[in-house]
Amino acid sequence: MDVIAQGVGELFMDPDADKARAAFRQKSRKWDNKVMSVKEAVERFVHDGEYLAFGGFGCNRIPAAAAHEIVRQGKKNMGFAGNTSTIDFEILCAGEVFNRCDLAYVIALEARGLSPMARRYMESGKVKICEWTNYSLAVRFKAASAGVSFYPARDMMGTDSFKYSAAKMIECPYTGTNYVLLPALYPDIAVIHVHEADIYGNCRIRGITMSDYDIARASKRVIITCERLISTEEIRNDPNSTIIPFWCVDAVCEVPYGSYPGNMCGEYYSDELHIKEWLKVEKEGGKNPEVLKKFLDEQIFSCQDHFEYIQKNGGMAKMQALRQKELLLNGAK
Amino acid sequence: MTDYNMMEMMICSASRELEDGSTVGVGTGAPCAAAMLAQKLYSPNLIIIFEAGGSSPIIPEMPISVGDSRTTWKAISASGMCEVMEMGCRGQIDYTFLGGAEIDMYGNLNSTMVGTDYYHPKVRLPGSGGANDFASFCWKMMVMTPQTTKRFVEKVSYCTTPGWLSGGDSRAKTGLPKGVGPYKILTNMAILDFEPESKRMRVIALNHGYSFRDVQDNCGFELLQAKKLTENHPPTKEELRILREEIDPFRYVIGR
Q1: Residue A50: exposure state from Cβ atoms within 10 A (0-12, 13-18, ≥19)
Q2: What is this structure's pTM?
Q3: Residues of A in contact with B69 (CB under 8 A)
Q4: Which residues of B touch A59 (CB under 8 A)?
Q5: Pick the catalytic residue: B8, B17, B51, B102?
Q6: How many CB atoms lie within 10 A of CB B236?
Q7: What is the ipTM of this complex?
Q8: Does B171 touch chain A (CB under 8 A)?
């Protein structure tokens, strides 16, 4: 198969499947209790310079608590997969955590408009970019999850999205049709927020799974944050509901409201007023950096943990209101 | 005459394009509002698909994100990006509705950057998201966008999402699925399609109160004109009522 064309983008991670196999071979299969605090999980498993992936999509089921902790611990020079990453991306930009990004959709917060802080960081020249699309990044995780070095797909062709990616194009040996080949993406570390997990890391998710089935399997290390711990017996009673099996997981952190201010399907809706406040302060921060610094100090750096952050933004009363809104109860809008 | 704004006109116009029983992949904002309006008024069996995994929901109120829990409300399935895009790649998604900062005469879209140098953009935009993928796979791509010279440009600064590329049979030669491409463009002034041979943008209908000249004056390239231009009627009272009261009571989209 000859390569017909290829993108000029930089490949940040080695797609070699045998190297990945060697790493996965070392991964523990023991039934260890992996429960720990978010602080400890980030200290032990997230390292400067490594490549990071987050679960969720947009503002939904994002590992917000872990993102804050990564920023608080001052992690730097990381790679990041920006696969419709919005509020979590904004948080990482606040800490200038990453300096290279596989990018499919960032900066904007979908219907809410753009994050001025994320845009400033992405236009600063501090971040190397390789361009992708949402599906092509998802396929890259899927290839890694399958333990191969690439997968074929039929998007991107003919566009600048291909030109500035690190994809290659070949002719199908069966049909003669052109295909793009998308290189497997094996992140060093992934953080995924889920609804329920047992102490070993068997996980359940409600609502969209996005790419998290594949990200959990593709990543060399995985931190799970969960709304609540459940028993392993409960997992065994309904094996069809297990989205992530424990042998993929390195740490389990119970963090109720761990996606806040994002949405958590069936649990709580996103806190639109708080998200708006962030965007407003970020905009002011363009003219007056002190305003933004003070806000981030208050919201992230001075917080001991996620509970303190939630406490500062309305506490249990806010969570109750967001739950009612999520479930459309009591006339909540 | 009923009062309405530009966004309401485009959404109502778009809602009439989706026939009952078809499948449509939509993005947030106006495209989603159009699909919801279609489902409530014209096409009760419309199957709305969201890229993050929400499939065929009965949407209770406007989702803010294409992955939020409104996209799986009473849905038939909650899956993921690959499941949805594979449905498209197999040929089971009929329409997609997209937007973009720039569009050119062949329907190529830019949502990545503005400027002349990719590495030093004047403005960095969000990127493709699922737009390139939906446009590659879904049989008929439609775009909703205001008719301005800033948006309708001779050549997009960056081709994020494929239209008919450089026209003629250029798209067919790339390897993208055959028979797929831009179908209609819905603006506040007109409905446009693509001339079958050259694949150049062509005005086929004018919205109430606009002339071909108005459309051309608000377009950065020369438009073709269908032999007979029809008139696209303004939003009906019923369309506006549902849109304002049931779909977007907080005016997230129609208040823009």
Answers
A1: middle
A2: 0.97
A3: 60, 207, 263-266, 269, 326
A4: 64-65, 67-68
A5: B51
A6: 14
A7: 0.96
A8: yes
